[in-house]
Amino acid sequence: MTDPAHPVTGDLALTEDDASRVVDLQAEGASLLELARSGDRGRAVRSVIRQPGQNAILLAFPAGGGLPGHDAPGPASLLCLSGSVVLAAGEDEWRLPAGSAHVIPPVRHEVRAEVDSVCLLTVSLPLPADPPGTVS
């Protein structure tokens, strides 16, 4: 279940039809960045891959935009595809220029875009438990 108040999971939009498509991250990112620039939230978010145990979420931030402080929904990593962002948790900050990645700390954190930026957030989720009587 997604949390509508969470700055990432509350924005996801992925249909069953999307499960078998090849994702052009550059084209999707450019489109999403235009959407982010035209909005007032400082970001645009779209899930590009969803499968049991994993979500890959494209994030687009206009310069100065980002994600406000929030808790991690599970083990996650952030890959900056274009631009440059700062991942901050408490007193720690990591600058991620295009082509760099970092683990999302399992504490309250935020992301700030230094310039127009597109990132890929990958979140690992627990797999559903096997139904009773299922042999693994």
UniProtKB/TrEMBL annotation:
Domain of life where this protein originates: Bacteria
Signal peptide stretch: none
Descriptive protein name: Cupin domain-containing protein
The organism of origin for this protein: Ornithinimicrobium cerasi
Taxonomic lineage from the root: Bacteria, Bacillati, Actinomycetota, Actinomycetes, Micrococcales
